[in-house]
Amino acid sequence: MAAVPQSHNLTPNVLLITIDTARADHIACYGAKQVQTPTTDALAHDGILFERAISQVPLTWPSHAVILTGTYPFQNAVQDFTGQPLAPQFRSVAQAFKQHGYATGAVVSAFVLDRSWGLARGFDFYDDAFSPEEFQTRDSGLVDRKAGESVTHAINWVKQATHRPFFFWLHLYDPHSPYDPPEPYRTQYRDRLYDGEIAYADHELGRLIAWLKSNHLYERTMIVLLSDHGESLGDHGEKEHGFFVYNSTVHVPLIVKPPAGSGFRLGRISRPVETTAVAPALLASAGIKDGIEKQFNSRGLLGTATDEEDSGYSETFYPLNSFGWSPLHALETSRYHYIDAPQPELYDLAADPEERNNLAAAQGATASVLKEKLRSLG
User: Fold this and answer.
1) Core-most of 51, 207, 224, 314, by most CB within 10 Å?
2) Quick one: which of 27, 355, 15, 353 has its CA closest to 175?
3) CB 9 within 8 A of CB 170
4) Is the pLDDT assigned to residue 36 strictly greater than 80?
5) pLDDT of 226
6) Are the C-beta atoms of residues 241 and 42 closer than 8 Å to each other?
7) Number of compact structural domains in the chain
8) Which domain, by its residues, includes 32?
9) 77 in a structural domain
């Protein structure tokens, strides 16, 4: 039986926004100079920006399984887009919110997050309906819809849900290939269509934020915005994502706009954090504890961790499952990025942020320590 919600004035709404395939360094508040992201920048201004957020897997469906369950891919067994649906013993944060009296809704913008994979559990409303014509003209894995339509669906749902606290997940797919932003972004970013998709998604997201503000809901809503993974854009010889675990695809934007009166110190946090930490942060914002925390791999985003304690884990099994190559596992600390590959790789991120100079041979002791730490995770 659902718990009786607290007074709406005391209980925050919780809004999770995932913008697919958005690499951190292509967002203005992360230093990008050639793309306009005023909505995301304003959330960062009003909240906490995590400078070193690390995705656990650079693929859409497995990464969202991490975000919504707070579990590593090797724990929840969702390690590629070719596997089984999420096993029923892994609970989604939506289930915990629903059990505690929240209205729960989601709008996903790509068929790859269709309810058949198991992420719809706990949602009263899960909008994964796509035009039948799309399936006739495109591969099902490429079926999606534009941010404008998804944001309109999101606003329509939130309008109906304001009689009690809500947890809502909005997923926007636009920066995923193929890059095809509508006008005026297609012309404005004609030489950088990927950036045009990010600018378009940010603009449409602005409509939802404006609606929350005009209805006096913004202040009492916890908003978490992040990406599931980045995009290589040619770095290291990879066009898109999934094959490698360099920062092009695992370093993602992550911003938390806390509800008013939360007492959190706003600003920027430089220590590495994992996307496994999102689920505990969402529930902590609402004061929810119901046993789901036993499955979490993280203490949450806003704990009292020190820089030395923190690192970010990543993996990909796509090279193994699709090409018969080795899977990759990686660990990123505040200074180094170690990739456990057939030829081990170690990068000093302070001196070499583009990860071009492999130091594994020259700094064997550092590589060994990180390899041991990586193995201790599994």
Assistant:
1) 314
2) 27
3) no
4) yes
5) 98
6) no
7) 1
8) 13-303
9) yes
